[in-house]
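Action item from last meeting closed. Structure (258 res):
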C-alpha cells in the first residue's frame, strides 16, 4: 500500500529534499508553501519524475491555525489519510529581546511551533484509525541550546522538542511514533538570508561569511546537507523504527558536543 507523506514547507531547502527522497521511495507526497501553485510547477514535476505516484500542493500561511487544520483534513481526504507527517516549515527573525518586534515574535511562534501543534492534532486521529503513523518534527540544535538575538526561534524550537515528547507519550501504546531531528547549520534559503545580512554588515563576501558562520558553531566546519536530513526522515518513517519515539536526533557536526 502506498504511503502518503505530508511535509510543511516542502518547496525548498530541507522540505524539498525530504519530498524528493519520499517520492523516490514511491510515496504519495503532499507539500505546503506560500507560493502560488504555478510558481512551484517545477517542484511538482520533479516529484513526479522522482517516482511519486501522486503529489499535491497546498498554498497556506501556517500562522493561521484554522487554515492549517483545514489543510491537513483536505490533504487526508484527497488521498485517503496521512501516514507520515513532517513538520518542517520555519521562519526566522533576528533581534535583541528588548528590540524584538512583537508581531515578528507572534509570527515565528505561530509558524515554527503552533502550526506543528495544529497539524499533529488533526493527523493523530487519522493515524489511530489507520493503525499506523509517523510524526517527524524538524527542530534544530536551537531546540537544545540557545543563540543570542534569536529569542522567538529558540523558544519555538525548544517548544517543538517538548511537543515531540508529549506526543510520543500520548501515542506510546499505539503504532504511532513522534521524533525530532535537530540539524545544525544547513544552507537553506532561511540560513542564506542570514549569511547575506551578516556579509553586508561586515563588508565580506557571502562565501567568506558562510565559512565563518559554520565554523563558529560546528567543529566539522561543514554545513549539514538537506539530503542527510531527508535520509533520517525516511529511516524514522520505516516500520523498523517502531521502538524509536520521543527522541531527538542531532545532526550538527559536533555543535552540541562542545
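Sequence:
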Amino acid at each position: 500500500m502506498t504511503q502518503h507523506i505530508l511535509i510543511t514547507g516542502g518547496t525548498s531547502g530541507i522540505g524539498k529534499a525530504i519530498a524528493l527522497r519520499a517520492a523516490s521511495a514511491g510515496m504519495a507526497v503532499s507539500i505546503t508553501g506560500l507560493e502560488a501553485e504555478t510558481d512551484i510547477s517545477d517542484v511538482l514535476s520533479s516529484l513526479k519524475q522522482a517516482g511519486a505516484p501522486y503529489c499535491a500542493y497546498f498554498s497556506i500561511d501556517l500562522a493561521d491555525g484554522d487554515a492549517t487544520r483545514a489543510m491537513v483534513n483536505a490533504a487526508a481526504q484527497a488521498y485517503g489519510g496521512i501516514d507520515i507527517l513532517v513538520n518542517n516549515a520555519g521562519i526566522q527573525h533576528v533581534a535583541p529581546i528588548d528590540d524584538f518586534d512583537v508581531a515578528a515574535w507572534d509570527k515565528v511562534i505561530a509558524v515554527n511551533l503552533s502550526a506543528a501543534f495544529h497539524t499533529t492534532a488533526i493527523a493523530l486521529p487519522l493515524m489511530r484509525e489507520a493503525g499506523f503513523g509517523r510524526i517527524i518534527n524538524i527542530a534544530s540544535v536551537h531546540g537544545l541550546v540557545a543563540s543570542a538575538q534569536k529569542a522567538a526561534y529558540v523558544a519555538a524550537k525548544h517548544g517543538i522538542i517538548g511537543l515531540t515528547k508529549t506526543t510520543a507519550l500520548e501515542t506510546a501504546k499505539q503504532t504511532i511514533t513522534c521524533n525530532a531531528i535537530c540539524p545544525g547549520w544547513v544552507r537553506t534559503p532561511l540560513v542564506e538570508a542570514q549569511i547575506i545580512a551578516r556579509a553586508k554588515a561586515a563588508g565580506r563576501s557571502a562565501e567568506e561569511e558562510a565559512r565563518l558562520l559554520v565554523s563558529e558553531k560546528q567543529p566539522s566546519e561543514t554545513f549539514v546537507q538537506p539530503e542527510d536530513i531527508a535520509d533520517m526522515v525516511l529511516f524514522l518513517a520505516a516500520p523498523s523504527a517502531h521502538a524509536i519515539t520521543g527522541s531527538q536526533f542531532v545532526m550538527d557536526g559536533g555543535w552540541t558536543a562542545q
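Note appended to the action item: The first strand starts at residue 4 and ends at 7.
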